[in-house]
Amino acid sequence: VTNLAAAAVGLLLACFGMCPAGHSQSWRSQMANLQHLSTHLRSFQSSRSLQSLRQALADLEGIDLHQADEGTHEQIMNGWTALFGAIDQATDSTFAPTDVPELNLVPPTAGGVTYPSGVDPAAIADPDARASYEADLERNRQKAERYHFQYGLLPIANRAGLSFGSYAAHVGANAPAMKERLHPLIRNSALRDETKQHLLTIIEGR
Amino acid sequence: MRASVIVAAHNEGDRLTRTLGSIVETAGKLDYEMIVADDASSDGSIDETRKRFSRARIVQHSSRKGASATKALGAEQAQNDILVFMDGHVKPEAGALERLVGNIERLGDSAIVTPQIVALNPNKWRNDPRQAGYGYGLDLESFDCWWITLPRMNAAWRQGRQFYESPALIGCALALHRDLYHRLWGFDRDMRSWGVEDLDFGLKAWLMGYPILHDPNAVVGHRFQQDFDNYTMPIEDLISNQLRMARKHFTESIWSAWVTKARERFSGASSDRPEGPWARAWEIFQKGRASAEVERGYLHANRIRDELWYAEQFGQSWPRLETSTRQSLTAREAVIAAARPSPTPPPSCRITSQTVATVPANRNRTTIGVGEEVTLTFSQNNAAWSLTGPGHLSATSGKTVIFTASATPGTARIMARGSSPPCTATIQFTTIAPSGVTGRRAPGTAVRHTQNRPDSGFKAEMYLTPATVSFQFLSIKELDVAAVATGVYAPFNGTGHHPGAPTTVGAVVAGLGSKVNGIDNIYSGDPGTAAPFAPGAISFAIPWQFQLQSGGPFVTFTTLNQRSALAADATTLTSAKAGAGVSVHVSDPTSGP
User: Fold this and answer.
1) Residue B373 banded pLDDT, cuts 50, 70, 90
2) Looking at CA atoms only, how far is residue A89 from chain B in angstroms?
3) Which end of chain B is more exposed for a tag (fewer CB within 10 A), N or C?
4) Per-residue pLDDT for B58 more than 90?
5) Does position A60 have pLDDT exceeding 80, yes or no?
6) Of the partner residues B394, B402, B538, the one whose CB lies closest to the CB of residue A116
7) Residues of chain B with pLDDT > 70: what percent?
8) In this prediction, does ipTM exceed 0.90?
9) How far is B402 from chain A (nearest CA, A)?
């Protein structure tokens, strides 16, 4: 779904390098932002780099809306849908923020010796204890990686909601006809139902 | 950084890069940022600037707005407190910029300073000191202007330097403090094409009580031209600019008289304008009159002198009141000053702020944590936003933007400028870094201890302090350090404390701080030594570092002492870190978290 949305942005942007001269600098800047958005979303999907997702959000936030015509608004709206789609796809609905990983672990006891918490595995002489400790560390590392990725998504999603709200308010004030298009765009999108509901609530300013 | 050098340009060709080159060459040790404010150039000069001057920050209009709006655009983007305006066809002499900036550092926001202007040969790019201009004069009736020699200006000693009072301002090179720039309402964004904006700005300064001081020891070459080879300059634009200036500064009766005279001057027909330029100029003026009226209201409410004072001060014949009705200038100034409502613009617009973090409860606070995000909303429908100091704005226009504090503590000032009506509002944030860590035993967990063994420990939650701001946009990590161990723990001396990957920080817990998303295990270890146990301790001095979750360098902000000990009584065991701790006896039953 997200790939489709990103592809749609890409297609809309295809004219970026080929459109006839005469477009304003503002238009070119808008198109450049949308092109970067597409690149950053693809990067996020392939690398799961939260920084790419942040950059994609910054691309959308940075578009100068005051020179945007209807065509540009269409692309911006598709951009928002693609961004929320990417967040949806990356979000683990079972994530529990309270189930935090450990900063360090206490190694297993071997031969009556237990090393202090957080000890470097290389310091443990007993091979079985060291292997067990390394396995524990790896499990915790994977848990931490999942946890911090999911936790890192939260503020980005929150900020995206705020910025989307600003965009919707701008469209409502300056291009009411375009705002009407936001509703069906979101309703007919493949976003999660709760995301759709969240965005529709934002559009209505509630 | 001390200054922002703002170079305004429109289709300057290679003169622009030569100007920038001259600035770089002559600036010496001056710490400054270079801003090129471009008025929609189409001659490739900006592309060339990008290639050759990577340090130049280029801000642009998408369509031509004129010299005045371009200078205003540059000023809005400036990051520093001292503004130096230069045209895109000037050549400062060595030390000129340093001298101008030094003057403003001495004078603060009390005056505008202008340099000596010499003629610049644009082909040879060489200044001709034989053709020098110093002060500038202005006739209020015709808005004609002229150069004034040093002997014809009043000398003024300020902060140990000799200056000369110039009645008017020439805009090709000048310096002033940012606060004064805003107090004077900035360059008029609605003046068109070219001309009058500098005269207008200088008159605002004098009437609001801020002199234009000329420093002949700073020398800047300027390319003078007989006509415009790089853009057109419609006469009606010039007249409409004069109308704006007259309307803003003159009292009603003087304004009416000025309009009558100006209409006579500019009504003559020409081959390309059989109706004369006046009609079109008046139409342009009326179209943008609303913003002139708003600024007029501000100027008249805040000025301490009027145009009559100006005419008398600088020996002009118009406008003058009849002697019998003339008030004492001093008395009139006193009356105006007493009626002056405020030295700053009336707050007809404002910025409201709300932290993205929902805790602490005061979301309007202006002291925030490094990396914290704040939503800013302007009271009008749209604003041009600019930032001075560390941090980042999500956009430069719009009703709402998000400010993200940088990783560096400091002060950030954000300005929003609206246009309906013209109005500027600012808000300032103080950004602070974590100052420490507070720990507490994880709720529901027990002391870690093995009966009759010398070990102790516990699980802890860690919180970044202070709790008055949110650090939820940070990650933290501990650094690897070696243990210092004695007594029963001596076998562990030099053992490394090998921490895991960076850990995100969560929301603030009231009274504690921003909660670290991870459980910290504090445990002494048990060397397996047979009883009796020698009193001793194992401790780690662990540096803690933070990083923005969005990336950037790690910064050490505190060092935590993690310590476990067997007391001298050889029975009491303790473990502690960041203010949290447990105590147990060797003989206590085995327990664990």
Assistant:
1) very high
2) 20
3) N
4) yes
5) yes
6) B538
7) 92
8) no
9) 8
Amino acid letter, residue A107: P
| Alpha carbons B317 and B139: distance in angstroms, whole number | 9
Question: Cβ separation of B356 and A118 shorter than 8 Å?
Answer: no
A159-to-A151, A162, A189, B367, B508 alpha-carbon distances in Å: 13, 5, 21, 20, 18
Minimal Cβ distance to B518: which of A24, A103, A114: A103
Give the Cα separation of B204 and B182 in Å (integer).
11
Q: Which amino acid is at B256?
A: S
Name residue, tokens 């890409």: A10
Query: Could A118 and B504 be called an inter-chain contact, meaning their C-beta atoms sit closer than 8 Å?
Result: no
pLDDT in tens, B485-536: 999 999 999 998 776 789 999 999 999 999 999 999 999 999 999 999 999 9
Strand B496-497 and strand B580-585: pairing? unpaired
Task: Considering only CA atoms, give the Rg of chain B.
Answer: 33
> Cβ of A96 under 8 Å from any chain B Cβ?
no
Choose from B396, B397, B420, B529 for mutation: most chain A CBs within 10 A.
Answer: B397
Does residue A22 surpass a pLDDT of 80? Answer: no
**Which residues of B fall within a CB distance of 8 Å from A63?**
395
Structure tokens at B318: 């118009």
Element housing B392 (H / E):
strand B392-393
Mean pLDDT in chain B? Answer: 89
Overall average pLDDT of the B420-444 stretch:
90
Mean pLDDT value of segment A24-34: 78
Say which DSSP state B145 is in: E
Closest residue of chain A to B501, computed from CA coordinates: A141
**Binary contact (B500, A162; C-beta < 8 A):** no
Is any Cβ of chain B less than 8 angstroms from the Cβ of A118?
yes
Within 10 angstroms of residue A116's Cβ, the number of other Cβ atoms is: 29
Taking the alpha carbons of A124, A127, A131, A133 in that order, is the dihedral positive or negative? negative
Quote the distance between the C-alpha of residue B223 and its chain's center.
Answer: 30
Query: pLDDT tens digits, residue range A70-92?
Result: 888 999 999 999 999 999 999 99
Which of residues 5 through 24 in chain A touch B, CB cutoff 8 A? 24
User: How many other CB atoms sit within 10 Å of the CB of residue A120?
Assistant: 16
**Position B202 pLDDT exceeds 60:** yes
Mean pLDDT of B434-459: 96
pLDDT of B281 higher than 80: yes
CB pair distance less than 8 Å for B399 and A119? no
Amino acid (1-letter code) at residue B20: L
| Test mutation, A29, A30, A72, A104, chain B, max B CBs within 10 A | A104
Q: What is the pLDDT of residue B271?
A: 64
Pairing of strands B503-509, B474-478: antiparallel
